[in-house]
């Protein structure tokens, strides 16, 4: 049996009014657009993991990862059996302009999207919650812990 919960990270990178999202090519969120991210490796700090995942999935080298949100993502099957449980630490990151995003690793595609475009894309609820908060309140992190069904 798999040990739960698993720890994961994601990285929010914003340029002007567009957010970098990747199309998940596999895993639980396959077919959905999400912030670049993935599992934390043993002994790895969360902020370093967020920057690593950003680089692995998009080729962009980021820096200054700052904690933004913590999501408790629990998914049950139709039979009520636990399918997965992730604790997702979302970080705001910065990156030098001019770096192009190229989908790699388990990302099928990568692109920059406005909040209006994101609202029409298939995304996990946490993605929309993050961009709507930033749209209303700006980039300054207000760390929060939220529970959502995955």
TrEMBL record:
Its cofactor is Mg(2+). The keyword Hydrolase applies. Gene3D superfamilies: Nucleoside Triphosphate Pyrophosphohydrolase (3.90.79.10). Residues 4-135 form the Nudix hydrolase domain. Keywords: Hydrolase. InterPro entries: Nudix_hydrolase, NUDIX_hydrolase-like_dom_sf, NUDIX_hydrolase_CS, NUDIX_hydrolase_dom. The keyword Nuclease does not apply. PROSITE patterns: NUDIX, NUDIX_BOX. Pfam families: NUDIX (PF00293). Belongs to the Nudix hydrolase family. This is NUDIX domain-containing protein. It comes from Hoeflea poritis. The lineage of its organism: Bacteria, Pseudomonadati, Pseudomonadota, Alphaproteobacteria, Hyphomicrobiales.
